[in-house]
Recover the amino acids of this structure.
């Protein structure tokens, strides 16, 4: 019974860029129907491309979850147009609000909380809303400020009908991430947590993204592990971290962590193949990327 508990299926979600979604010919065969795919927005794709990617995901039976980067929204009408088009053309019901790292604030919104405080999402029938979490801290705010921001969003969820959850930045020190997530209730934050981790990739690729995303501390932790050093030439294998997380969730049912969130730095196919090979679904073939995990 103990072995079976440790192998209980662990739900996961995954990210993809709009161009990846549009250009991947066999996209419809990569994941089971119902897969929740987060559409990134780093300021390089026009709205037409983002909408087209969301529509393509929907056509394969996936669940598109577009990022909404607050600092890149130039006006309220632009926000309204973005949400309305995604809702009407791709039938989205779920978004991930992020501050959106930009050289400067491009419009009236400095944070995702300010997007929440408009009625644009609720007016368009968007009731499921993700917000960002930073277990290693944020390069643009202190730990205390980040926790206070997350507390304000948790309070918003309690005061409204919004079904909210946290998606964290990726990292490699899973024990540290678990401590962060399970400490959230002590700060009055009661949102479910999707814990970010990198999929299989070259180490050089991970180092590049770690520098961009501000997860240097976690990258340093990875390099101190003998297995990680040995993998510098072979590439990064996320299985030990996933196994540790799966074991923890299986034996701690009250943890706020409800799933893994995969950053496929080595490519969508490589991450999809890894999830498939590790058997991240149960004997009944339920979705390993569960669209109803929280």
């Amino acid at each position: 019974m103990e072995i079976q508990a440790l192998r209980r299926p662990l739900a996961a979600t995954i990210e993809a860029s709009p161009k990846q979604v549009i250009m991947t010919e066999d996209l419809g065969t990569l994941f089971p129907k119902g897969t929740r795919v987060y559409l990134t927005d780093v300021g390089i794709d026009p709205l037409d491309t983002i909408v087209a990617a969301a529509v393509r995901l929907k056509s394969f039976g996936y669940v598109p979850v577009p990022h909404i980067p607050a600092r890149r929204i130039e006006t309220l009408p632009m926000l309204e147009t973005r949400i309305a088009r995604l809702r009407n053309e791709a039938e989205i019901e779920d978004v991930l609000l992020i501050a959106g790292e930009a050289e400067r604030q491009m419009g009236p919104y400095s944070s995702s909380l300010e997007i929440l405080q408009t009625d644009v999402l609720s007016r368009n029938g968007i009731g499921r809303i993700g917000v960002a979490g930073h277990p290693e801290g944020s390069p643009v705010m202190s730990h205390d400020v980040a926790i206070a921001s997350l507390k304000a969003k948790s309070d918003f969820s309690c005061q409204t009908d919004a079904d909210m959850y946290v998606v964290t930045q990726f990292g490699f020190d899973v024990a540290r991430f678990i401590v962060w997530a399970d400490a959230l209730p002590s700060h009055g934050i009661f949102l479910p947590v999707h814990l970010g981790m990198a999929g299989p990739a070259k180490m050089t690729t991970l180092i590049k993204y770690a520098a961009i995303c501000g997860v240097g501390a976690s990258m340093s932790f990875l390099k101190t592990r003998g297995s990680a050093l040995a993998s510098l030439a072979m590439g990064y294998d996320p299985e030990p971290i996933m196994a540790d997380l799966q074991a923890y969730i299986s034996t701690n049912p009250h943890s706020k962590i409800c799933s893994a969130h995969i950053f496929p730095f080595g490519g969508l196919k490589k991450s999809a193949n890894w999830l498939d090979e590790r058997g991240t679904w149960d004997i009944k073939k339920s979705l390993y990327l569960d669209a109803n995990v929280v």
